[in-house]
């Protein structure tokens, strides 16, 4: 107990706690705090939604992208998709340094600007069926804009997570951070519905030539609204207090902070990378790759409606997982989602292979994998963010979440495609194994915590994995969000 108390004392400026049982049982207080939080942070959530919208659009028009830029190669198109994820860690580090040393607000505005440019520009590129003589130029620019999207998105998720985590009342952290996933589910649901309508209205030939461009161009409107809103938000008190406590923070520690992470936090970095494994795979393989590969015989509009069903189920599950996180902790939520994937991943996939009818597609992808996507991804950002103190939080997310998301999630579709070409059962085995990896990671992390080798939380000490292993901190009144006047 002495060791636990010592850990709390070291980070007492950043850790907060409250009586979670009584707070979460008072539904009116919990709902009031959540709604107040949403009114103040909607520009962040709207802008972050564009990141996921772009990923969804590219996935759903993978066939058109392959025909226009990759000579019809599905594997090539998915590898082009993965370019974004290769660039994510670098973008996370660059914008993470900006966020941790110059402010969350500057970082989120830079990342949003990059995402708007990258998304809209992809809809303007010459391809095989439109501006065919410049197809090579279009391919080169596509790779550049995919990389720009990754650089921007890599920094976006760290700064947005840190901002939401630092301005939310501590007793609603799970619900606050899960709003990022609600945005992703909403974006993917909208993307699949929009493309389903476009496919039905325009037909496959028009979609191949120019229809696939419309969803990319559409993002300019919400992007402009989000940028306007983000320019009005204020910096977080946690960041400002860090700067006040260390006047040389910007000048002296920009390079040292990365080295500090690598030297003093290598174990928690690995915990973050492997903890993301299941969520990253469930986000990008079952709802996107399986629709194009396993369910490729379905009409394009039918497959997209199946994808919409998956996103709507995930959207319904996500706030439940956020509430579950506030009751039982982020590690418990992550572990439950990974256990579910371990048990359901292969059987649900096998069902699709054996009978890939429309009804089975709705049951397997729409329901079973929709639950997996929603529960696994709801608060995975909080799981990674909790591993690092505020002064290193965005950079820590860049080196944990972004690396895990890039190489375990970004290549999930390409890996699934490669496995599928070897044996059509291998992708299901692969998905189940990602659940096992995350479950084992969490229990190893808890074991290391019990031995006082790692610190797993820096903002909310409990609940984390139930209420049994984390130290008890005296109850504090829940903080209130406030909006400072514009400076």
From TrEMBL:
Can you tell which superkingdom this protein's organism belongs to?
Eukaryota
GO cellular component entries? plasma membrane
Cited InterPro entries? H+-coupled_symporters, MFS, MFS_dom, MFS_trans_sf, Sugar_transporter_CS
Q: Which organism is it from?
A: Cladocopium goreaui
Protein name stated in the entry: Major facilitator superfamily (MFS) profile domain-containing protein
Q: Which range is the signal sequence, renumbered to this chain?
A: none
The alphabetical list of record keywords is: Cell membrane, Membrane, Symport, Transmembrane, Transmembrane helix, Transport
Gene3D superfamilies, sorted: MFS general substrate transporter like domains
Write one Gene Ontology MF term: symporter activity
Where in the cell does this protein reside? Cell membrane
What does the similarity note say? Belongs to the major facilitator superfamily. Metabolite:H+ Symporter (MHS) family (TC 2.A.1.6) family.
- Membrane topology, record value: Multi-pass membrane protein
Give all residue intervals belonging to the Major facilitator superfamily (MFS) profile domain. 40-452
Q: Which Pfam families match?
A: MFS_1
| Statement: the UniProt record of this protein carries the keyword 4Fe-4S | no
């Amino acid at each position: 107990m002495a060791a636990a108390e010592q850990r709390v004392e070291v980070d007492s400026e950043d850790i907060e706690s409250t009586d979670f049982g009584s707070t979460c049982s008072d539904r009116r207080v919990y709902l009031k705090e959540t709604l107040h939080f949403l009114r103040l942070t909607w520009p962040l959530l709207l802008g972050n939604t564009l990141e996921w919208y772009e990923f969804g659009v590219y996935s759903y028009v993978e066939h058109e992208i392959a025909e226009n830029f990759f000579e019809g190669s599905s594997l090539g198109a998915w590898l082009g998709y993965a370019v974004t994820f290769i660039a994510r860690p670098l973008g996370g580090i660059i914008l993470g340094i900006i966020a941790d040393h110059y402010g969350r607000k500057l970082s989120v505005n830079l990342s949003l600007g990059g995402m708007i440019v990258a998304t809209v520009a992809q809809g303007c590129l010459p391809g095989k069926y439109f501006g065919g003589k410049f197809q090579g130029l279009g391919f080169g620019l596509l790779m550049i804009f995919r990389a720009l999207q990754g650089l921007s998105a890599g920094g976006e998720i760290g700064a947005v997570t840190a901002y939401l985590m630092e301005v939310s009342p501590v007793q609603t952290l799970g619900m606050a951070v899960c709003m990022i996933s609600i945005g992703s589910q909403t974006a993917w649901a909208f993307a699949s519905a929009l493309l389903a309508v476009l496919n039905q209205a325009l037909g496959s030939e028009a979609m191949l030539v120019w229809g696939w461009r419309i969803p990319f161009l559409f993002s300019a409107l919400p992007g402009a609204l989000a940028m306007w809103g983000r320019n009005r938000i204020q910096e977080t008190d946690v960041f400002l207090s860090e700067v006040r406590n260390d006047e040389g923070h910007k000048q002296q520690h920009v390079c040292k902070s990365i080295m500090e992470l690598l030297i003093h936090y290598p174990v928690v970095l690995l915990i973050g990378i492997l903890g993301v494994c299941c969520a990253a795979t469930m986000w990008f393989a079952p709802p996107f790759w399986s629709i194009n590969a396993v369910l490729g015989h379905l009409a394009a509009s039918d497959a997209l409606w199946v994808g919409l069903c998956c996103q709507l189920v995930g959207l319904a599950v996500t706030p439940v997982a956020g509430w579950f996180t506030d009751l039982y902790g982020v590690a418990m939520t992550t572990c439950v989602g990974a256990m579910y994937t371990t048990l359901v991943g292969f059987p649900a996939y096998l069902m699709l292979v054996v009978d890939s009818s429309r009804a089975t597609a709705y049951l397997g992808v729409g329901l079973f994998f929709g639950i997996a996507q929603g529960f696994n991804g709801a608060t995975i950002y909080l799981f990674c963010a909790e591993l690092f103190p505020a002064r290193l939080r965005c950079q820590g997310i860049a080196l944990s979440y972004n690396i895990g998301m890039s190489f375990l999630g970004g290549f999930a579709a390409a890996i699934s495609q490669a496995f599928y070409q070897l044996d059509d059962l291998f992708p299901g085995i692969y998905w189940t194994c990602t659940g096992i990896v995350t479950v084992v990671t969490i229990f190893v992390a808890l074991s290391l915590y019990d031995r006082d080798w790692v610190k797993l939380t820096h903002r909310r000490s409990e609940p984390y994995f139930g209420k049994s292993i984390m130290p008890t901190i005296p109850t504090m009144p829940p903080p209130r969000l406030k909006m400072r006047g514009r400076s």
